Amino acid sequence: MRLYGYWRSSATYRVRIALNLKQLHYSYVPVHLVKEGGGQHLAEYQKLNPAELVPTLVEEDGNVINQSLAIIEYLDEVYPELVSFLPVSPLAKAKVRTLVHDIACDIQPLANLRVLQYLNTTLQCSDSQQKNWSKHWIETGLKGIEQRLQSSAGRYCFGNEVSLADIYLVPQVYNALRFSLDLDNYPLIQLIYLNCNQLAAFIAAKPENQPDAE
Amino acid sequence: MRLYGYWRSSATYRVRIALNLKQLHYSYVPVHLVKEGGGQHLAEYQKLNPAELVPTLVEEDGNVINQSLAIIEYLDEVYPELVSFLPVSPLAKAKVRTLVHDIACDIQPLANLRVLQYLNTTLQCSDSQQKNWSKHWIETGLKGIEQRLQSSAGRYCFGNEVSLADIYLVPQVYNALRFSLDLDNYPLIQLIYLNCNQLAAFIAAKPENQPDAE
């Protein structure tokens, strides 16, 4: 299968981790989100993803799936071998999903490229206003997550098995570090980030280890 | 069970639709998001939801679940009777989830109350800048969704059965209409919105039909 993405896109990073955890082979098709107005807006890519965002997964038989979370839950269902991204009990599953949506809905979409571009271009925000914006939403989100983790974390976000929540947390923390966020305020998040990044699947998925890294 | 929410919150609206479709009885606990700095920030509520957002579902046995999507997927799993919010095939499920995340991740979080408050207070954006901001993200999102629906819609977002996608679409369209968005540019979305709003579960969930409506 083919994964269309961008090295520094959090959403692509999540799918890379998921594919690696499942040990699924894929070819990586870089879509440069900035150069020449952004490859995600080209007609050819727009056919694969009308939302003009990355990532997109295209299976060998031609099935096209957009949205990182839809892709990852699909992979988990179709390839149940090796690891499961969600616990079995409905309540435990809900707890993991809560952490996932804290990031997927309430942090990442607010501090991503297209929003910063709008702040910069349309609202003419200064560099420091843009930086404060990102930091504000990341800090607000991580504060709530740190509190949730007090009742769920073990070695990872939910006990001692890697789950969907870790697949979401690691790219978000990577992004937070780009904004020089001090992780000392989030000891559990910091610990889980370090633990995940000892695993081969997470290391291979890092932005700097992608062929399109700059 | 108890649902903590706010009449005009999209995320609460979704959960109300889901509870109604499953014909589950619940008591509704209003959390006023604006008055006196916002009830979601009070210590008592923060214990239920560290993210200080609505909704929160509290089950009779005391289980607490945050994040609308985690709540709704939980309800669907625990109460499989009457209707199922997701189709059976993994690929169909992924298609429905893509539509859900288009809204839950890429539209709603950008145009919600706390973001508009930040634009207003911290960035000192004018009323028209705030309105344009919301319209921009809603229009960008709905444009992609309208295109996706061309290959999935029947009477509802995904064929002729109500799914999770409709539970997300209706509150988003309701919100778009508050920003005077012209739905004529989105004929499938408009049609599905009208079809859903003929169903008792959707009518009873409307913001204006809640006890805390103003």
Automatic annotation (TrEMBL), chains A, B:
UniProt record similarity statement: Belongs to the GST superfamily. Zeta family.
The keyword Isomerase appears for this protein: yes
Organism of provenance: Paraglaciecola hydrolytica
GO molecular function, one term: glutathione transferase activity
Residue span, GST N-terminal domain: 1-83
Assigned GO CC terms: cytoplasm
Classification via CDD domains: GST_C_Zeta, GST_N_Zeta
Alphabetic keyword roster: Isomerase
GO terms (BP aspect): glutathione metabolic process; L-phenylalanine catabolic process
Coiled coil ranges: none
Protein's UniProt keywords contain Ribonucleoprotein: no
Residue stretches making up the GST C-terminal domain: 89-214
Organism ancestry: Bacteria, Pseudomonadati, Pseudomonadota, Gammaproteobacteria, Alteromonadales
Name of the featured protein: Maleylacetoacetate isomerase
Gene3D superfamilies, sorted: 1.20.1050.10, Glutaredoxin
